[in-house]
Every structure is written in C-alpha cells, then in structure tokens.
Amino acid sequence: MPTYVAIGRDTSGAQRKERVSAETPSDARNLLKDQGLYVMDLKEESGFNLDMESIKTSMTKVTVKDKAIFSRQFAALVNAGVALVRGLGVLADDCSNPKLKKALLAINADVQQGTNLSDAMRKHPACFDNLYVALIQAGEVGGVLDEVLNRLAKLLEDLARLQNQIKSAMAYPVTVGFLAVIIFVGMMVFLLPIFADMFEDLGADLPVFTQVMMMISRFLRQPLNWVFMIAGISAAGFAYRRY
C-alpha cells in the first residue's frame, strides 16, 4: 500500500505535515479529512520524486502571463457568484504552474479559516506583489473584487504583450551577439595560438593589446576555467529564475 505525504491545515489553522497509507490519493484525502486536516498538497512518498518536485517548484517562476490568466479566470468566477473558496479550488486544480498552484492551495486554506483574500495573498510575495495585493484589498473593501480583478487582468495582459514585443525586438541583436561571442572564442582558442607561436619564434616585442589577447587565449584553453565559467553562468541563471 503506497504512503502519501500531505501538507495541510488543521481546524485551528496551523499548518501540518502528515503521512498516511492508502490505496489511492482520494482515499488518503478522505482519511486526512476525517482527522481534521484540510489537505493543500498531497504526493506519493518517494524520496527521489519528492526532491525533484521540490526542485522543479523552486525553480519555476510565476510569469506575468500566469497572473493575467489567473486574474481573468478568477474575475469571471467572482462575477458569476462563485464562492471564493470554491473558485480558488477550481483554479488551483487547473493551474499548470507548480509554484502558483501551491500558493493558491495555501491561499484557499487560509480563506477557509476566515482570513481575508488579500492577507492570504500577502503571504506569497513570489506570486503576488505588493501592488497586486493592495488592489485586491481595495476591491474587498469596496465590494468590487470582480471589477478590480478584471482591471488587473487587463493591466497584466498589456504588460505581457509589451514583454513579448521587447523579446521579439531583442531576438536579432541577441542572436548576432551570441554568434559574435562564438566567433571570438573560436579565434581565441584555435586561431590566435598559431600566431602566438609565430610571434614567439620571431622574438618580436608585442603591443600591450596583443599581449592581453594572448592572455585571454591561454585562459580559454584551460579546461578547468571553462568549468568555473559554466558553473558561474548556471548559478546566475538559477538566481535569475528563482528571484
């Protein structure tokens, strides 16, 4: 019988992590519900899979497009008179972004415990920034949450469209720059050493600029230096996606 790991909130609102053995995920949820635990996240226990899932979630970034889609769908549900808890549950089930999905499940649990929607969202700054939360709070106070969500969706859709236009405009110069770097590295690694040997045989005094190029060439021909450079670029890319 498989074992499932669940993260949820009990009747007092405290977050708990529980393990339960059950035939299916549905049975596991029912068992935990009988124990007074509202399940926010449930996974089958498997060390490797759990670690990979956590890594995937931590590396995933909630994009402007993700928030725009959520806002538009949430506005439609609120405008149709669907309760916040039910609407958040539906959107969490349909969400394809693991980080946003996890946040929506936690927000849903908080709202069920009586927390305001804006206060629940404020706990997840990686998904909802201060401006977003402030506008949601204004919508709650003024009783116009659906209108605020529609305006947020429009704002985020326009921002996503602008980002796409910028990416399209940057595609050509980025491609040219990438090719230029490849050509430069190729010259430093394969072509310049040939001239370096020629200059050394001639015993000529080289200009400072040429000496600098020779130093760069020697640096790029050391395999260990490439390991450090690739590790640095990978770390920078991870930090950018994470934060």
In short:
The protein is mainly α.
What does this molecule look like?
- The protein is mainly alpha-helical and 243 residues long.
- Strands 2-1-3 form a 3-stranded antiparallel β-sheet.
- The two termini are 39 Å apart.
- The mean pLDDT is 85.
- Helix 3 runs antiparallel to helix 4 (84-94).
- It is built from 10 helices and 3 strands; from the N terminus they run E-E-H-E-H-H-H-H-H-H-H-H-H.
- The chain is elongated and about 85 Å long.
- It folds into 3 domains: 3-44; 58-160, Type II secretion system (T2SS), domain F (Receptor-associated Protein, Up-down Bundle), CATH 1.20.81; 170-242, no CATH class.
Describe the global form.
elongated
- Structural class estimated from helices and strands: mainly alpha
Radius of gyration: 27 Å
Mean pLDDT: 85
Which CATH architecture of the largest domain would you pick? Answer: Up-down Bundle
With strands numbered from the N-terminus, the spatial order across the biggest sheet is 2-1-3
Low-confidence stretches: none
Task: Label this structure with key terms.
Receptor-associated Protein, 9% strand, 243 residues, 10 helices
Secondary-structure topology with pairs:
Blueprint: E1 3-9, E2 15-21, H1 25-34, E3 38-44, H2 47-59, H3 64-79, H4 84-94, H5 98-112, H6 117-122, H7 130-142, H8 145-202, H9 208-220, H10 223-242
Antiparallel strand pairs: 1-2, 1-3
Helix pairs in contact: 3-4, 3-8, 4-5, 7-8, 8-9
